[in-house]
Amino acid sequence: MRSLKHSQTQSIAQPPCCFSIAKMLVLVFLIAIAGISFQSVPSFNHRPNFFIRRFNFPGIRAQQSEAKPPKRGEEADALKLKEWVIGMLQNEVAASQGIRIRRRQPTGPPSHYVGPFEIGLENEDKTPRNTLEEIIWQKDVEVSQMKEKKPLASLEKFIENAAPTRDFVGALKAAHSRTGLPGLIAEVKKASPTRGILREDFDPVEIARAYQKGGAACLSVLTDEKFFKGSFENLEAIRSAGVKCPLLCKEFVIDAWQIYYARIKGADAILLIAAVLPDHEIRYMVEICKMLGLAALVEVHDEREMDRVLGIEGIELIGINNRNLKTFELDISNTKKLLEGERGEMVRQKDIIVVGESGLFTPDHVAYVQEAGVKAVLVGESIVTQRDLGKGITRLFGKDISL
Ligand SMILES: O=C(O)c1ccccc1NCC(=O)[C@H](O)[C@H](O)COP(=O)(O)O
User: Fold this and answer.
1) Which residues of the chain have a pLDDT value below 70?
2) Which ranges of 150-255 does DSSP label H, i.e. alpha helix?
């Protein structure tokens, strides 16, 4: 019995063209027997090993099956198989773009009977590699539950009646011209996985009002509950309270459904993370944002993500995150590094607004990222932890920006 050892690390580094011939042949075989219909299967991203019993294929674990193929649940089995094949293809595409975050936690080994063959999936690496991957796996579970409760079709009537969105990019540009400083996106952030609770007396509406009064151009509202203690209720409450600043829904988007939901809950902009989403999904989601009147803040962490995003048409806002996704260390020189040379030139040519994100605590930090080329900053911890939020903003910029 031989098993196909499919190392995550190796395959992540390989482009799709490096699929071994054996794997490709098996994939073609599986696609044929599963009768793939790409449109009918939801997005699914995991990278299991696989085995086929009663089928001797080089590099694949093969075994004579004693049991008779069950008749019950064949459709469900076929669907799982289709999902897996699609997930594998999606992973290959994502891996070819350097994306290491797997979209979904690998699950148990479903088996599938096709005629005399028993085909099973076998997963090895079920532990998240880092906090972002853990967040994404959790999000995958949450989103599928929410989609079941509120299918996309049921959101459409709310979208038709939703109030118009406010101009997020325009507000940042206006603040920049008014103050000569980067426009502030102030984050309504109760907690984070790295720092725990940041503010005990957390009243999202009061915080939002204080930020607006203190001169924030826009607000960022964390909606993730498990890791950031945020919520869509916070977003909705801030919007309903008459706060004028345009609102960024700070979510971990893995499914277009979340964009529709954010729009209904009062968002004017939404975050798309390039470390999670391959190019085609960013393109698709940016189009959906445009259709819904939302701005898309596309976040990058390194040169590769920056190059990918600069290659996508129609992007108006790029966020450079100074937080290392693996170590969570903050290094504001990341913003400078990603805006040097040709990249900075492209940003200027395309008239993209760059937002410096994370780890900004002092006027020197703000001046440093402004010098690097940002026209906006996204700040959470350094202001949300201050007792007087307005003074916190003044301290961050070294002057009162509300005037
Ligand atoms: O804030 C975190 O610890 C964090 C951990 C894992 C993924 C994302 C995380 N933060 C999201 C953000 O982008 C920040 O909340 C935002 O940039 C503000 O950062 P800061 O000013 O450092 O609070």
Assistant:
1) 1-73, 107-124
2) 152-161, 168-179, 204-213, 232-240
CATH number of 134-397: 3.20.20.70
The token duo for 284 is 């698709």
| Cα atoms found within 13 Å of the Cα of residue 151, Cβ hemisphere only | 2
Residues contacting residue 248 through CB under 8 Å, at least 6 positions apart: 168, 185, 218, 219, 220, 221, 267, 268, 269, 270, 271, 297, 378
- Please give the Cα distance from 403 to 179 (Å, whole number): 9
pTM: 0.80
Provide the β-strand partners of residue 295. 269
Q: Where do the DSSP E strands lie in 115-205?
A: 117-122, 183-188, 191-192, 196-197
Cα 393 to averaged position of ligand 1 atoms, centre (Å): 17
Partners of residue 113 on adjacent β-strands: 118
User: What are the tokens at 31?
Assistant: 């696609």
Alpha-carbon span 155 to 183, nearest angstrom: 32
Strand pairing class (317-321; 353-357): parallel
For a mutational test of ligand 1's pocket, the pick from 323, 332, 384, 397, i.e. the residue with the most ligand atoms closer than 8 A to its C-beta, is: 323
Are the C-beta atoms of residues 192 and 198 closer than 8 Å to each other? yes
Domain boundaries, the chain: 8-126, 134-397
Taking the C-alpha atoms of residue 349 and residue 355, their distance in angstroms, rounded to an integer, is 16
Tens digit of each residue's pLDDT (9 = 90 or more) over 287-314: 999 999 999 999 999 999 999 999 999 9
Q: What one-character DSSP code corresponds to residue 17? A: G
Question: Cα-flanking dihedrals φ and ψ of residue 7, to 5°?
Answer: -70, 130
With H, G, I as helix, E, B as strand and everything else as coil, classify residue 324. Answer: coil
Q: Is the ipTM of this complex over 0.95?
A: yes
Residue nearest to atom 4 of ligand 1 (CA): 192
Q: Which two tokens stand for residue 181?
A: 């400083």
CA angle 201, 206, 209 (to 5 degrees): 145
C-alpha 192 to ligand 1 mean position (Å): 7
Are the C-beta atoms of residues 332 and 368 closer than 8 Å to each other? Answer: yes
Which residue puts its alpha carbon closest to atom 15 of ligand 1? 380
Longest pairwise C-alpha distance within the chain: 79
